[in-house]
Design brief:
- The protein has no helices and 11 strands.
- Helix content is 0%, strand content 48%.
Length: 127
């Protein structure tokens, strides 16, 4: 069983930075590719970034490429999202998710492809 808990959200001014963390209390964390998604009021949940089982491969949405960095520490059962140069349009609830993968690969996942989700953490960027 995988249980994901996000932390690190908050209020930040435009141009600022935040680092989100996602801790997994289950076993076999390294068997899962991990992703970050976000959802704004009235909008569908959207892909932000993903990382493969080993961390060797990453994928980013075009809207965050060059500003956000996903990373993981399998020894700590954790995945991170470093968010720099934040914009008001980045305001959303951010969700961590896990996808069981047999290979060390990742992609821009659809929400239906993920196996487990965290409860989300709010990120608000003021202008």
């Amino acid at each position: 069983q995988v249980q994901l808990v996000e932390s690190g959200g908050g209020l930040v001014q435009a141009g600022g930075s935040l680092r989100l963390s996602c801790a997994n209390s289950g076993r076999a964390f390294s068997n899962y590719a991990m992703g970050w998604f976000r959802q704004s009021p009235g909008k569908a949940r959207e892909f932000v970034a993903a990382i493969s089982r080993s961390g060797a491969n990453t994928q980013y949405a075009d809207t965050v490429k060059g500003r956000f960095t996903i990373s993981r520490d399998n020894a700590k059962n954790a995945v991170y999202l470093q968010m720099n140069s934040l914009k008001p349009e980045d305001t959303a609830v951010y969700y961590c998710a896990a996808k069981l993968e047999l290979a060390d690969r990742t992609m821009a996942y659809r929400t239906s492809e993920l196996n487990y989700w965290g409860q989300g953490t709010q990120v608000t960027v003021s202008s």
